[in-house]
Amino acid sequence: MQDKPTTTVLVTGAAGYVGSHTVVALLERGYGVVALDNHCNGSPVAYERVQKLTGASFVKVVADVRDEVALAHILSTYPVDACIHLAALKAVAESGQKPLDYWSNNVGGLLAVLRALQHAGPCRLVFSSSATVYGVPEFSPVPEAAALRPASVYGQTKLAGEQILLALAAQSPLSRLATLRYFNPVGAHPSGLIGEAPHGTPNNLMPYITQVALRQRHELSVFGGDYPTPDGTCIRDYIHIQDLAAGHVAALRHLLDEPGSFTVNLGTGRGTSVRELISTFDRVNGVCVPSVVVGRRSGDVSEYFADPSLAKELLGWCARHTVEDMCRDAWRWQLRNPEGYT
One of 17, 47, 102, 154 is an active-site residue; which one? Predict the structure, then answer.
């Protein structure tokens, strides 16, 4: 069923991993899309795959999210009703090496988008935040009211973005702003046409697993095997990218229908250990991913998963895909696209 066929959404970072799946979810529900990306992490090939999946056309703009002239042109040319802001640099380790780049892109980009939206009318914005704003949580499941103490530059930029939105909401009651703190997106579209295509060495666990399974890498390093968890490895909340995309659409729909702003976690509410993820991947795909336990990484917490109850209550959203689905779809994507988008 189509939600709002006359509603047009500006999606920044639209050619990236989260962006491409979110654009598919929007188009399938009848929304119009204006896609903006500078392709520093995303690929224009993803757009071709999106059109193949949906049979729908959409506007594509190549521009940096900090380019206020380009943003003003978009908003004066197209009747944009809301924005889903996904454009950001997102590698935790890299953020400590390139802090100025992360502050400029992640915070400067958000400010540019907000200024452009405000000039065009009341803000309607869904903001891609991150569970990294919690830092090392005191307990799990982690609710939205937990302490915010990010341990990385990346997390700090996301928390700064949230604070900017809080200030705007207080100053401009007509603004409607949704902050989505998501946990660990994995998997791919079940078609195998779009998925996660990291440049260089993957920063996230699942694409590293799939590359080892394809023998593009020798083995998987498991950081720490002596944590106080049932099997000694870290526990995380992995959420299927399809569920995450649906969460963005649910947040958008709520913003368009109801006044006010809100912040919610997007996660499954269930923890999966690193060993469990590897063994599940092996089992459902009939492969063997060689791994070796190495020393712990600084800053890693033993157990970390979401309390997603507010998203269910407020948005009617909950994660529906299993860990088996995540592993199966990630492997299908890797098999069909061994070199990513080429």
Answer: 154
